[in-house]
Design a protein that fits this description.
The protein is an all-alpha fold. The protein is built from 4 helices and no strands. Helix 1 (6-33) packs antiparallel against helix 2 and helix 1 (6-33) crosses helix 3 (50-62). The two termini are 16 Å apart.
Length: 89
């Protein structure tokens, strides 16, 4: 049983939601990079804001890392375990 505060639980779910959103952005950016679709159409398809997608895509083209290693809370393996666990529900 989780005994943390509501604030910790809220931050945890915000983290999970942001990871799922980032996965959508990565898939959408690959679709744009492959010239399969426009930014506007891809944003509508994946349900993300077109300006957010454009910004993400531009940063990817320039080689910026979206999530700094210094800000990481979980390792990549731990993140995958948490996301998989949440998606089971």
């Amino acid at each position: 049983m989780y005994t943390g505060t509501l604030t910790n639980v809220a931050y945890f779910f915000l983290f999970i939601i942001s990871k799922l959103h980032e996965d959508k952005l990565k898939k959408a950016a690959r679709m744009i990079a492959g010239e399969e679709s426009s930014i506007r159409h891809t944003a509508e398809t994946y349900g993300v804001d077109k300006m957010t997608l454009k910004s993400y895509f531009d940063k990817q083209k320039l080689g910026y890392e979206i999530t700094s290693a210094a800000k990481r809370v979980f390792t990549t393996e731990e993140e995958k375990l948490v996301v998989d666990h949440i998606l089971e529900f």
